[in-house]
Amino acid sequence: MQTDLNYLPVEILHDILTYIIHGSKERLNILCVNSLFHSVALRILHQDLLFTSASQLMRFAGYIYHILLAGDPENDGHGKLNDLVCEPQTLTLELAGGTAFTLVTPIGGIAGFGTATCPLSIFECLHEALSQLARHPKARMDSNGKHILETLYLRLNSHSIEKRCYNVYDAFVLVNPRRFIWVGPDPPHHFSIAIVPNAVPSLFEALSTYTRLTYLKLTNIAFPTLAASDVLSTVFSSLSLSSNSGSESSIDYIRLPVIPSLRTLYLGQTTFLSAPSIASLILNTVRYSEHDDDANAGRKDPQSTTSTTRAQLERVHLVDAYEGSIWGLRLRMPHIVTAALFLTEHPEYSDGYEGRLEPGGGDKTLRERVKDTVENMVLVEVKTERIMGGDRGS
Q: How far apart are CA 194 and CA 301, in angstroms?
């Protein structure tokens, strides 16, 4: 017995078409079946934007540009184009590993390029697409003029040949997502670097502007090292401590972005990630005491798109994280605990932690509460092991 899909409830048809569209490269065929398929599928395509090339991004930017131009009363006769049927909620960008630049004619003229065909990086293309989308009436904007998204999902490489790394910031700062995911394009078992060190500062700067972000996942990332002197002033911290014996010790680490709304941080296949970086993030974003939460509970607005001033971080999930290269040591829980205890000896940290760290039993010292907090919040996982050599995680 054959079933006519036209008689299925729209909700079920929506799920079926979503599965087909996301698994097919011939999406236009689905739109051409009949008017019902066209209506449902078009809403799926516009609600969950998916791009697989830089040229697609630029064509979409041109599409939005001409839609807005056609709706302009001063428009000189441009034909009416099919408009977006709904508010875009997610944006997915999946690119092959080698994709870095594309030759395009900028829509409306990007500053400095005019209208001539020129090479644009993927982040310049993303910036152009998001800039045009932000002007569309169906795009939902926050009070700071950022496009509100549920999810921004990237499966692509940044590139060390990209000299204009501020383009990473310029693209990401245009949105305010609830979930931000950037993974590498290679298979999970293939340990490769997708987010190169010189792209990290601009990425962190953009992430620091997000007020709705609750889930952050970054994989295949190499953090900057002290040798990268051009980024030291923006992403590195250095602390010096004097012991009772008079000797001094110091610690240098990269500062991870403090995002008050963030609940879960996932870092996978990372290199040059130091224990103090994780420890500092936790100590800077631990929840306030239960008393403070109760006192401020009445001032929370569940409908607000902006974050509260109190940090919400609940989980830091580290998968195949290395303190140096993949031939060196893995980042382990004892390393993070030791780094956190080291940091609490510095006034910059210890002066502000009394009464804040959880759990905070009256019979526990500050060091004991720091240790409990780190162990309760951090999950260190070994997912991919070497056949031989290196720290295999055993």
A: 38
